[in-house]
Write a structure and sequence with these properties.
alpha+beta, Aspartate Aminotransferase, domain 1, about 35% helix, single chain, 6-stranded antiparallel beta sheet
């Protein structure tokens, strides 16, 4: 997955914004809260970091090409970083990014969800 593919996909999700921060990382947010981060690789294929459920975290952290996300996972959060495509295809990564977006959006206040068009 390239930065362009990543950014295009994240932009297609509802109520998202993007900033470049933390050493050039492409940081995508919903309601001001981070749901996906791409950056920090040595080539044009970024490492992609996303939030997941605790059960997914327990499974994914053991797979080649995936690891607990530096900084975030060390603070007890269920975030995974894909460093290669050995264990997860781009299609699967898109699904996990969408789930990360859903998880983060669900944690927003009901008022903000409604303002962003994420709830009825």
């Amino acid at each position: 997955m390239t930065y362009e593919e990543y950014d295009t996909y994240c932009a297609s999700l509802p109520a998202t914004t993007m900033v470049v921060q933390w050493g050039g990382a492409h940081v995508w947010k919903v309601g001001g809260k981070v749901f996906a981060i791409a950056g920090w690789s040595d080539d044009d294929t970024p490492f992609v970091t996303f939030k997941c459920s605790p059960s997914s975290f327990d499974i994914l952290k053991e797979q080649p090409g995936l690891r607990p996300a530096p900084y975030l996972a060390s603070r007890g959060m269920s975030w995974i970083q894909r460093t290669g495509d050995e264990a997860m295809s781009d299609d699967d990564l898109y699904r996990y990014i969408a789930e990360s977006h859903r998880l983060v959006a669900a944690g927003l206040t009901k008022k903000l969800q409604k303002e962003l068009g994420l709830a009825d």
